[in-house]
Amino acid sequence: MTETIKKKISESKGARWAALIIVSFTMMWGYFLTDALSPLMTMLEDQMNWSSSEFGLFNSAYSWFNVYLFMLVFGGIILDKMGVRFTGVLTCILMLAGALIKYYAVECISPDAGTVFGMRTQVFVACLGYAIFAVGTENCGITVSKVITKWFQGKELALAMGVQVAVARLGTAAALVFSPMIVKHFSLSAPLLFSAILLGIGLLAYLVFCVLDRKFDAEVAVTQDDDDTFKVRDLKLIITNRGFWLIALLCLMFYSAVFPFMKYATSLMENKYGVSTTLAGLIPSLIPFGNLIMTPFFGSLYDKKGKGATIMIMGSVLLILVHVLFALPLLNYWWFAALIMIILGVAFSLVPSAMWPSVPKIIPQKLLGSAYALIFWVQNIGLGLVPLFIGKVLDNYCKVGTRIVEGAEVTQYNYTLPMCIFALFGVAALLLALRLKAVDKKEGYGLEEPNIR
């Protein structure tokens, strides 16, 4: 591979795939921390006296700074102005800092240590750490998307993005599977410390990528035109683009039905299907494990055959089916829940594999950082509000008694109403995907055309 890189890094297949593997590795550990506490809702309720509303508040903190302080929007502008190396290193440092604050909150602050702004101090500090981490991980996500477009434009773009998504989802799967196991052998804060160590390794990996990317820029600098330089006034090309806003809103609705659901999926398994906490974490992990195989497959299909808008429509239909099946009071067996999770994994592979590679067909390369940042900002509105909303719904409308978990009494919930809410987000995603296909046909974006030229 070293000889291949020395030839001409900007055209080397080995070099671009090496770059992809490195940045995907960094993102994978970011996704591990994102869901490190997701399968631990019952344990937090038992050991730290967290309520469903507090768990929802904690998950909503992911969007505090990204949405309400517009950190994602500013991050996109910084990315387009300063480049992928500066922005990537900065975001890795923020992820690591947020992880350490979350660990401090759970490990060092007592659940009874007073209140801050009406929140228990432990919950507030955990939220603060999660919010700082989220600024890092979301901006790292847009940076990695621009890295892949930069290195794979006109080549295996959708496949590369599919591989990156698949590797990132592997981090999610690892969190869902191993966090309960780590807690049983160590403590409730141990998954957070483990995450911080992995993020430190991810930062070192990204520094290695920076060496490759500097050489890439040195090779292509001689062909760069003044029109390729980012200017703030060019942002109007994004905000006046119909296709862009349809993708952004589709992203909002689709991910609002998936990521917030995954925060509560372990609790759903425990409450509806009566499985243990360990198995309850294993079943939702089928989603990202399915992504590992299916997202690159659908990405490769998009590269070679096209049909991007059609793929997004198919994924939205499957998403609706999944949440309706979870809402219905039938076949309350763990194997049926596992089967539905596999279908959700397919849906979760279809839409991202086509959605993210479609953005460069609509937005110029020089504005991609800002475009992805604005999409992520819109997406984070859902990632912040939906978990908080679901937590309130569970607390106010879905309590049906108590159950015993490892000798402790915890609340029993009926998840029918939350699953109906998630299904409605899927319906909205389907309508937007259908509209996107119609606009693509009229405007000629090329979403139904192959990526490889």
Per DSSP, the total helix count is 19
Helix-strand makeup class: mainly alpha
> What oligomerization state is this entry in?
single chain
* CATH superfamily membership: MFS general substrate transporter like domains
| Relative helix content | over 70%
CATH architecture: Up-down Bundle
Low-confidence stretches: 1-6, 222-226
CATH hierarchy class name: Mainly Alpha
Share of β-strand residues: under 5%
For the biggest sheet, the summary is: 2 strands, antiparallel
Instruction: State the CATH topology.
Output: Growth Hormone, Chain: A
Total strands: the figure is: 4
Report the order of strands and helices. HHHHHHHEEHHHHHHHHHHHEEH
Label the overall shape.
globular
General description of the model:
The chain is mostly helical. It has a single domain, classed as Growth Hormone, Chain: A (Up-down Bundle). It contains 19 helices and four strands. The chain has a two-stranded antiparallel sheet with strand order 1-2. Strands 3-4 form a two-stranded antiparallel ribbon. Strand 3 and strand 4 form a beta hairpin. The radius of gyration is 21 Å and the shape is globular. It starts with a helix and ends in a 10-residue tail after the last helix. The N terminus is likely disordered.
What is this structure, in a nutshell?
The protein is mainly alpha-helical. Helices cover 76% and strands 4% of the residues.
